[in-house]
Fold:
Amino acid sequence: MANQAAERAGQLPPGEARYPDEPSTQDIISRDKVAAPGWVRSESYQFLGDEDISTDRYKDPDFAQREYDHLWTRTWQFACREENIPEVGDYYVYDIGRHSFIVTRVEDDKIQAYYNACLHRGTMLRAPGSEGYATEFKCPFHGWSWNIDGTNKNVLCDWDFPHVDRDKFTLPQVRVERLAGFVFINMDQDAPPLAEYLGPEFMAHLDAWKLENRYVHCHVSKVIPANWKLTMEAFMEAYHVIETHPQVAPSNADANSQYDIYGEHVNRFISSLGVVSPHLKGQVTEQDVVDQFTVGDASILGDADRTLAEGETARQRMADMMRVMFEQATNSDLSGVSDSELLDCFSYTVFPNTFLFAGISLPMVYRFRPVPDDHRKTIYEVLFLRPVPLDGECPETAECVHLDESQSFTEAEGMDPGFGEILDQDTENLFLQQRGIEASAKQGLTLGNYQEIRVRHFEQAVDRYVGGGA
Amino acid sequence: MADLPRGAKKHAKIDDTWVLVCNVNDRLLAVSGVCSHQAKPLWNGRVRGGKITCPVHGARFDLETGEALDLPATKPIATYAVRVADDWVEVCVES
Ligand code: FES
Ligand SMILES: [Fe+2]
Structure:
C-alpha cells in the first residue's frame, strides 16, 4: 500500500509499517460472529528504538550474577497456583537460583512465604521443588521446629540457647500477593504492590479472564539448553512460525499478528488462528485451513466433520466447533465467550519470567527460571489451565511431570500431541541459538521494529533492573 | 470398608507393625504407617495424587510402590497386599 512504499522510502515513522496488503489482526477479529471484548479490540504498540540488543546478557556469567543480585531479588514472581495449596498447612517450595521459599496457607484466606532455611544452622526445612502438607516445619538436623504461621515451636535443649529469644526466631518472610488464582512473591520489601507493578491496563485484562476459576489440568517441566531470556524470547513473536512451525502456518495469521506493550512489565501478542498465513496467500483454500488446524488443546475436537458449507469461512467454522466441543469436554458454559477468545492465541509476558495466555483453546501458563549455577540452561514449565467444571467439582491439581533434556514434550501425560510437537520445534532452535550467539562475530541481536517489539521491551526491563548493557 | 470411603485413610497396628491403608480413587493401597526417614507416624500426612507427605519433615512416598520421592527420605517404605473379605479390609504384613 501507499504506507509501505512510504516506509520503504523512509517516510513512514519506524515501527508503523505492517505486512503489505493484508488485513490486520483487528480487521480479522472484527468480522467474527460473536464479537470480542475491549481488551481484545485495542492496540498499544510503541516504537522503542532500533539499536541492537547486546548479547553479553545471554553468555556472560557475571551478567547472570547481576540478575540474581538486582532482578530476581526485586521482582514479583509467580510462585504457585492457589490450588497447589488448597488447605491450611499445604505448602509449595518455590526456588529461584540459590533462593528457596516455602509458600504455605496459614489460614483459609491467608498465604505466607518463608525463606526455606533453619534459623539454627541453616538446613533447608523442606526439599527444593517439593510440595505437601505440614503440621509443623521441623528441621531434619537437630529438630528445631516452626508452626505453620512461622512462629517458633521448639528449640531442642533450649537451656543451651539462653541467647535465643524465641519470639524473635520467627521464620523470615517475603511478600506475598494473590491474583487471579496465582500466588506471587517478592523478596523486595520496598517493591511497589503487584497491581501497580503490572499496571492498570493489564489488571483490567486479567480481571476479564477469570483465571481464578481455572485449575491446573497439566503441568510439564523440561530443562532447555539456553539462557532463560533467550528461551522466553523464543515465544514472544509469531515471526518464526513460517520457518519453525510450517504445519501451523496454513491456519495462523502469523505475519499479521498484533503486538502491544503495557507499562514496564507486561507485553503481548494476539495471533489469529483459523486464518491463512500471509506467506501462503493463494496457496491454501479455506477448506485446507480447517483441515490443517491443529494448534493448541485441539485433541478436544476429535474427529468432528470439518467440511465447510458454501461461503462459510474456516475461522468461523473453527470457532463454532470449538465452542461446542470445549463446552462438552470441560463441562463449562462458554456462551458469553467471543469467537476470538475461543480461537486466538493471546500471549502475555509478565516480567520477569511468566507467560499468561488468555484464550480457551490455548490456555497455557509458562514459567522460566535459570538453572542455578548455569546461565546457559533454563527450567521451562508449561501449565494448562482448564475452566473448573460447571458441577463445581474441581479435578485434582495436576502434578508436574519432569522431562529430561532429551525427551519430547509429546511424551508428557496430558499434553496434546500437536501442541507438544510445536513446543519441541520452538525449543530445538534454542541450543543452536545459544551456541551461535557465543560463536558469533556480531555482538548484538538485530530486531524487527514491530514483530519483535516484545523482545526489546522485555530486554529494556531487564536492563532497568540489572543497570547495564545497551 | 465403611471406614475407608474414597479419599480416606486408616491406620492400625498389626502384630508389631503400623500399617496405613488409603483409599485412592476407590483403590485400597497399604503401606507402612511409619516414615522411613525418622520413624515419625505417616498417618497425619495428607494424600494427594496417590502420594503421601510426612507432615513433620516433608518426605513424600508413592503409595503404590513405597518409593521415596522427596528429601529428606531416601529409602522406600514397605507396601503390603490388601484384600476385602465380607466388608473387612485385610492387610498381609508377612514378608
Ligand atoms: S540446622 Fe536446623 S535444627 Fe540444627
Ligand atoms: Fe513457536
